[in-house]
Amino acid sequence: MSDIDKEAAIAGVAGSAVGTAGSIGTVAAAGSVAGLGATGITSGLAAIGGVVGGGMATGLVITAAAPLAVGAAAYGLYKWLKD
Fold it and tell me: Which residues cross the membrane (predicted)?
């Protein structure tokens, strides 16, 4: 693995960490009950899923996919800028 690939992987992991923190913050703030208790999490996930016409399960899928997308974007952007 080349140095650029290693650095891009680190950028991808860092991007995923930032995406995870953003997802947690969004869930905590989006619901009708703020916070990370059971009611806060369920209302937050339902609110996020409701943006696209779904419910709590859809919100969970969106929230779980966001860090992966941010990490992949960070990896690709780093590789693109270094090449």
Answer: 45-78
Q: Residue 19: count other Cβ atoms within 10 Å of its Cβ.
A: 21
pTM over 0.90: no
pLDDT tens for the chain, 83 residues long, are 889 899 999 999 999 999 999 999 999 999 999 999 999 999 999 999 999 999 999 999 999 999 999 999 999 999 999 88
C-alpha span between 43 and 31 (Å, rounded): 4
Hey, what are 67's tokens?
């860090």
The two tokens of residue 65 are 């996919």
Structure tokens at 39: 């009611």
What does the block give as tokens for 42?
């369920």
* Alpha helix stretches (DSSP H) within 2-55: 3-30, 38-50
